[in-house]
């Protein structure tokens, strides 16, 4: 587990700067405090910071093939590396270590980009071919590990975190207005764009090839929702296969040379993972949970303790206060690189900090909701069949009436989404920061195409989707965007901020492919969401864990922004600040603040999103600018 960074100068007359690489690696030291390494070869300078998990003594990077032609730096874990190592040795390869990193470079020597098909894990990879002077970058299928790049003239810069890219003097700090608009709709910035103009994320399941002449990006994997042909299988058979896949995924992710544990929320996903870990381990599982001061009886700590007791875990927990929230909010934003309108980021950071005091690696439960349909919006979208006939004028009237009603936030979200007949627009409005109508008011002075909603994001996603059923199409979009750029980004950045590796067993690509191909009635049946996963969980967990309502992180942010954290609102959303930025309509922001502070409405999500944006602007955009060349975006399957 590491952080990687590098520079490729595509102009042969200009050597890559080793000094700039050092600054880039220093910016991500938290990702790998144990060790560093670098490869310098004329126009290429790349390196890594290592958090040693596998082969502590022999896993130093860069690593090379037998001839020394290929050099690799790597962030992640390849869980089937032992099996791949045995196969490589049988084919005559000489491997000098027991590291998963070395397996990749030998596979690349054999197969080139096709080596990615053999890898089972999470990864961001950089391989340099010293003979052809070609750079290969790749990101894992689901996007568990981040990888960013920017091209400035004839300079290509890449890194695990954006803050490392910003150390290069050719990379400016400029706001991307299209990304900001999507953030205001979705609460996050969907890839490949980032909040920085000209800086892109390499999409999950893609690789990048760069040489003196071109930079090309190609897709090597996508999830298919096509249903298998042949005789239908019985429910019992699906249950058996899912349990087998989960046990295998967890077994592979328990391969570690350092102490490990698990995040335990007390929900179905994390509880089932802990149960299956306990079955495979001789020692107690170390588990970690957080709650919130003042939320006694509303948070999930009692359920987490119940599961920990049932499986004999060594359990650790604590409660976050409003003071903790205020104290850590800005540091969390720094580690995220981009704002996310998610109050749970501080909780994620603090539970990772707690875990790092005891272990170096954890398993987490991310992905279960997106694979097996766990969110209420998946059930709610079924009512679209009843509202599809609504004329646009009626839908607009429904949204207008709801916007003026006090309270009922979730109900208003549902009415707002279901009032749209277009599928992409409806999907974009199921869980927004600002609804399309309210965003247009907020951005009253923006060009119409930038002030519009996030429908283009979902239109683009749905073009790549082979699913027919609306539920599967919604799950595809969430797996490609919400999961990657919201949940996994949060999980990676905030675990690595604490030098902690987080593994995600539900996102083994074989589990993902199995879930996608399931009949929809095994995902939602009646009022039961995550139906098949719950059937597996019934074999391991008590009924009160399996069938209780979903809570997530019940942060009392609405109360904190009115009282203990009110200073954050007054400082970041003052009229003077809003006017100085000249991005938003001051009247709209003032109305949001007043309605929230009076208790008339709960605008905590919108306010926290705007506060996060302002803190990000101060930390990243207001920093001194550096001269730069014009950014050149790279398009899938084409040169730039």
Helix/strand-derived category reads alpha+beta
The pLDDT mean sits at 90
Question: What about the largest sheet?
Answer: 6 strands, antiparallel
Question: Total strand count, please?
Answer: 17
CATH class membership of the largest domain: Alpha Beta
Question: How is the CATH topology of the largest domain named?
Answer: Glutamine Phosphoribosylpyrophosphate, subunit 1, domain 1
| Count of individual domains | 4
Strand order of the largest sheet: 2-3-1-9-8-10
Portion of residues in helices?
Answer: 40-55%
Radius of gyration: 24 Å
Helical segment count: 28
List unreliable stretches of 5+ residues.
Answer: 626-633, 635-640
Q: Roughly what fraction of the amino acids lie in strands?
A: 5-15%
Large-scale geometry: globular
Describe it.
By secondary structure, the chain is of the alpha+beta class. The chain has 4 domains: 2-174 and 191-219, Aminohydrolase, N-terminal nucleophile (Ntn) domain (Glutamine Phosphoribosylpyrophosphate, subunit 1, domain 1); 235-317 and 350-373 and 472-546, Rossmann fold (3-Layer(aba) Sandwich), CATH 3.40.50; 380-430, no CATH class; 557-621, no CATH class. Helix content is 43%, strand content 15%. It contains 28 helices and 17 strands. The strands form 3 sheets. A 6-stranded antiparallel sheet has the order 2-3-1-9-8-10. It has a 6-stranded antiparallel sheet with strand order 4-5-6-7-11-12, with helices on one face. Strands 15-14-13-16-17 form a 5-stranded parallel sheet, with helices on both faces. Residues 626-633 and 635-640 have low confidence and may be disordered.
